[in-house]
Design brief:
Belongs to the universal stress protein A family. This is Universal stress protein. It comes from Undibacterium jejuense. The protein has one domain: HUPs (Rossmann fold, 3-Layer(aba) Sandwich). It has helices spanning about 15-30, 60-85, 95-105, 125-130, 130-140; strands at about 5-10, 30-40, 85-95, 110-115, 145. The longest helix is centred in the middle third of the chain and has 26 residues, at about 60-85. About 45% of the residues lie in helices and about 20% in strands. Helix 1 (about 15-30) links the parallel strand 1 and strand 2 (about 30-40). The protein has a five-stranded parallel β-sheet with strand order 3-2-1-4-5, sandwiched between helices.
Length: about 150
């Protein structure tokens, strides 16, 4: 049915719970997993006259964000290793995480995106489920939304 699943993460507690559920799902259907962390693009500080000397270069920023991203992807890597399933991870850069998630799914030949939602509705959904909602509206492949209740 599904052979390659994309698991987006932002390193949050919700994302980690979704990662573990996605790895378990992938194990049950014998699918491969691609985990992705999307960092914002570098923003050159054009709004100030003098750039502080401690402002990172674009290369420094990207290197730091790749390190953060790999830290956030580590739980997925360990869970996949323990489950015995094929695993890849990637750190991408884009100002729209939803667009990059959809693009990465296509780029890596994924046939399912498995991502989380808080299970909120109304205003809470507008504020906290916006990336999932955008992926659902942009995506041409199935998206499985793992609902995690917030107490």
């Amino acid at each position: 049915m599904y052979t390659k699943i994309l698991l987006p993460t932002d390193g949050s507690e919700l994302a980690n719970a979704t990662i573990y559920a996605g790895i378990e799902f992938a194990k049950q259907i014998n699918a491969k997993v691609v985990a992705v962390f999307v960092a914002s693009n570098y923003q050159y500080p054009i709004y100030i006259d003098i750039i502080p000397p401690n402002t990172p270069t674009e290369e420094e920023y990207q290197a730091a964000m790749r390190n953060f991203g790999q830290t956030y992807l580590e739980p997925a890597k360990e869970a996949a290793k323990q489950a015995g399933i094929a695993f890849e991870s990637i750190v991408q850069f884009h100002d729209s995480p939803a667009k990059e998630i959809v693009h990465t799914a296509k780029l890596y030949g994924c046939d399912l995106i498995f991502m989380g939602s808080h299970g909120r509705s109304g205003v809470g959904n507008l504020l906290l489920g916006s990336t999932t909602t955008k992926v659902l509206s942009l995506c041409c492949i199935p998206v499985l939304v793992h609902r995690t209740k917030v107490h």
